[in-house]
Design brief:
Blueprint: E1 2-5, E2 10-16, E3 21-25, H1 36-42, E4 47-51, H2 70-84, E5 89-94, H3 96-107, E6 112-118, H4 127-159, H5 168-177, H6 180-191, H7 197-200, E7 207-212, H8 220-229, E8 233-238, H9 245-248, H10 250-263
Parallel strand pairs: 3-4, 3-5, 5-6, 6-7, 7-8
Antiparallel strand pairs: 1-2, 2-4
Helix pairs in contact: 2-3, 4-5, 4-6
């Protein structure tokens, strides 16, 4: 695990392999290890960067103790790319990580040469959704680690399909280990995210949209709508997977991502 110090926090990140850069952005409430199957596989052909987002894993919440909007996450990732001397990357995000990827592309399109959006959606939060995210943030702050474990117990069967028992222990451990304050800050920030649908219509290069067939958080219909917005895109539905197909069905997920990476024109 590497550490990069910024003005407001210390970003922990994995950095494996050499070649074109592939930046992997984890979801909520996880850490960079949700990408371990992809770190292991793609570091054979790419330089794979997988950070812990602010408030997750080894990265402290730092100077944003109450609300971390997606722009803060995006700028942390740009700072990391700058530190590593990476001009452009293929950017892949899952769930909240996908929304952070869209925010990064909206702010810095010149830094992205490929976009992978997995089990995510581009629309702004509804009023009902804002209330639910803020209520959950209050619950996690009030209950601390015990509330985080209770939340993990409640949602595990939606994060990982019940038939994918091999992936469940890792996912549960990640959720239970997450700092409640970091999770709460991200929930509050995510509640205020913008609508990215127009941004997606401007992507000039081929993109990849991936979704688990049995995902109930971001169902296949959301992926289909997002796919339709992108000028040039491939839609891949991973069978026998829910919200985390990269962990539930890593071989299938990796095959889809590998085909996409091969389709991109390599920089000189």
């Amino acid at each position: 695990m590497h550490v990069m110090r910024t003005a407001t926090t210390e970003i922990g990140y994995a950095d494996q392999g050499t070649g074109p850069a592939l930046l992997l952005v984890h979801g909520h409430p996880f850490d960079h290890t949700m990408w371990q199957p992809q770190l292991d596989h793609f570091s054979r052909t790419h330089r794979v960067i997988a950070p812990d987002l602010r408030g997750y894993g080894a990265t402290p919440l730092g100077a944003h103790p109450h609300s971390t909007d997606l722009g803060v996450f995006a700028e942390d990732l740009i700072d990391l790319l700058d530190e590593l001397g990476i001009d452009t990357c293929v950017l892949a995000g899952l769930s909240m990580g996908g929304q952070i990827a869209m925010e990064l592309y909206r702010r810095h399109p010149e830094r992205v040469r490929g976009l992978v959006l997995a089990d995510t959606f581009p629309t702004a939060e509804t009023e009902e959704g804002k209330a639910a995210r803020n209520a959950m943030a209050d619950r996690l702050l009030a209950g601390g680690a015990r509330a985080m474990r209770g939340y993990a117990d409640e949602v595990l069967d939606r994060m990982v399909a019940p038939y994918n028992t091999h992936a469940a222990p890792h996912v549960h451990r990640m959720m239970c280990a997450t700092d409640p304050a970091g999770a709460a800050a991200a929930l509050r920030g995510r509640a205020e995210r913008p609508d990215y649908r127009r941004t997606l219509t401007t992507v000039p290069f081929p993109a990849l949209v991936v979704v688990g067939r049995d995902d109930t958080y971001t169902p296949v219909t959301d992926a289909e709508d997002m796919h339709a917005l992108l000028p040039v895109a491939t839609l891949a539905i991973i069978e026998k997977a829910a919200h985390l197909p990269n962990l539930e069905r890593p071989e299938e997920f990796n095959a889809v991502l590998e085909n996409y990476l091969r389709s991109l024109v390599r920089p000189n």
